Predict the 3D structure of the following.
Amino acid sequence: MVDAGYFQGKNEEKNQEFPEEVREIPYIFLTHAHLDHVGRLPVLVKNGFKGTVITHRATWSLAGHILKDAFHLMDEKSPLYTERDFYLPLRMRGIYFEYKGRRLTFSGDLGNKDKPIIRDPQNPQKTEILVCESTYGDRNHKPIKESIEELKKAIFDTLPMGKVLIPTFALERAQELLYIFKKWEDEKIWPSEWKVVLDSPLSERILEEFKTLREFFKGK
């Protein structure tokens, strides 16, 4: 089984659904730690999954923060799982596997290149079956440098007149923003009177986790 994502919004009732043969699933491959890819993992455990999770060490350490945060936001009267359902056997992952002589590759959310912190994704080896996320499959992302310049203009045009509030994902995006702001500060273009406040306990916990995963970053 590949990923075990949590449904949000109008599809939340699907979170109660799971394969009837869940007890017979030997492995679950987790592509990355976003809630919509790992959020129902404890539900499967609660309903009988006793197999092994195969994923990357970084994915596993980040997924723990995501799952615990989601647990505490659940309806107390009808939680999908308990904290004891978090604990699972773990193995390190490969991005592909072979089945009956055929190689299958799963991308997860592959992401863009030239990101500020993490290294660019590696190109997969030759494969016969490719399964990939298609959220942005019908468009091309603009270069990251162009997006950063747009962000810079919006902030520098606005802060002299007031405050800037930036809704952002707790995982990766919040940390990237902090990295960019610190880079501007080091380049002496960020005025000292401009203060940055990260108002997200989950983002703060993930930031601390990032500090233990430096081998996956670019450069120093």
In short: Residues 57-73 form the longest helix (17 residues).
